[in-house]
Design goal:
alpha/beta; 20% strand
Length: 421
């Protein structure tokens, strides 16, 4: 095999050493920025806090040669999407076009930052809301680019970094921007944290988040119950039938997580609702499960009761594309140069990588530092992982930019993006 097509072959170990040294020199600044971001309340429904993070990101990008665009939420209820672009004199004509995505929001309510401010304990573990999901990954992208810009011309025609304001609620306002820019890119790297064991992510389950509303008929429960049609009874039977679908398709899980309905105990319930989480490894299985659920709604346990399913959010599975496998191999080669190993994993949660992989764009995720216990008070970040993982990201960008195989993907188009799992 031509050594120029071997993943990681275009990387000079000396370059990686220099990049890692530059990033290590910036570690105190990184940690100061991390404390600042973690100590800002920026839940998805706290747009003023998200926009404070956005202003920081925009200044950082501008200070390091990016052209920055801020796109407000059309509904004016969420934070703005911040988009930084490095191209022109900073790029290399004919090189690949790369998209980075990191998110600025958290799942936490206002006041959480004051209750649990950023700390680093004696064991080198950082804590605080969003410390790993995903302020550390957001900063890893910024500091990796700072090191690359300082080192010289970037080996890609264009790199666009999208800072997403609403990923934790399904990216409703940012997805159109992600899809627009991904459609003109060959590669997408998403900066969620690495798994707790250091794995990066090459595939994720798809998710259907749906609400089923059951419509019955109200009646007096003591005087003439026979005239009623209980939406709660029909809904309860439906819960059992939905959970019985678990195991029908490999890797598909179905869970009714929220149920409600009725008005008073002496009234036959006219309405009930179920909130359902459906996850699948493969798009075909997610579609089959949804089809089966919709079919169930036509045969409810109580006569004269009807129901409808409304998707609240949907992410198609991030299936491991053949091209994505090459990105994994590059990441593994760069990590070996840096003195550690990485593997790729397939977690159950979704991210913006589901969107880009579903478009046929080579995508990998989990490229932030190592942490865990996301969305909980126990969320943590391994501080010792910040420098090596940021250096891994910087080196991966170099490897992708110099890979002639990746350079050919533009001409080949989406036809070459084939799922391998």
């Amino acid at each position: 095999m031509d050594t120029e097509t071997v993943p990681g072959a275009g990387i000079d170990p000396g370059e990686l050493i220099a990049l890692e040294a530059a990033i290590r020199a910036d570690e105190p600044a990184y940690l100061a920025d991390l404390a600042r971001l973690v100590n800002t309340d920026c839940g998805s429904y706290t747009p003023e806090g998200v926009d404070e993070i956005g202003r920081f990101v925009a200044r950082f990008m501008t200070d390091h040669s990016a052209t920055v665009e801020v796109r407000p939420d059309p509904a004016a209820t969420r934070g703005a999407t911040v988009i930084g672009t490095w191209d022109g004199p900073r790029g290399t004509a004919g090189g690949p076009r790369i998209l980075l995505v990191g998110h600025m929001d958290t799942v936490f309510d206002p006041g959480t930052a004051a209750e649990r401010p950023f700390t680093i304990d004696a064991d080198g573990i950082a804590h605080g809301p969003g410390v790993t999901d995903m302020k550390s990954g957001l900063l890893a992208g910024l500091y990796a680019l700072k090191a690359l810009v300082a080192a010289g011309p970037l080996p890609f025609e264009r790199l666009t970094y999208i800072a997403n304001p609403d990923e934790e609620i399904g990216s409703p306002s940012s997805t159109p921007h992600i899809r627009e820019i991904a459609a003109d890119a060959e590669v997408c790297l998403v900066l969620e944290c690495a798994r707790a064991n250091g794995d990066i992510v090459s595939s994720r389950k798809g998710i259907l988040d749906a609400r089923i509303t059951v419509h019955g008929r109200a009646a007096h429960a003591g005087v003439e119950p026979e005239k009623g049609r209980s939406a709660i009874l029909a809904g309860a039977d439906l819960v059992t039938r939905l959970h019985a679908l678990n195991g029908r398709w490999d890797g598909v899980t179905i869970n009714v997580g929220v149920i409600g309905g009725g008005t008073r105990p002496n009234v036959v319930a006219e309405r009930s609702s179920l909130e359902v989480d459906v996850r699948a490894i493969r798009r075909a299985d997610l579609e089959a499960a949804e089809s089966e659920i919709r079919s169930m709604l036509g045969s409810l346990a109580v006569p004269d009761v009807s129901a409808e399913l409304v998707p609240m959010a949907r992410w198609w599975p991030m299936e491991k594309l053949e091209r994505s496998g090459r990105l994994v191999e590059h990441a593994q080669a760069v990590a070996r140069h840096l003195g550690f190993e990485v593997r790729d994993a397939a977690p159950g949660g979704a991210s913006d990588a589901n969107t880009t992989a579903g478009m046929g764009i080579a995508s990998i995720d989990g490229l932030g530092p190592i942490g865990g216990m996301d969305h909980s008070p126990a969320e943590y970040l391994e501080v010792a992982s910040i420098v090596p993982r940021t250096a891994l990201l910087a080196g991966l960008l170099l490897a992708i930019g110099r890979d002639p195989v990746v350079g050919e993907w533009r001409a080949a188009g989406a036809a070459g993006a084939v799922a391998t799992s």
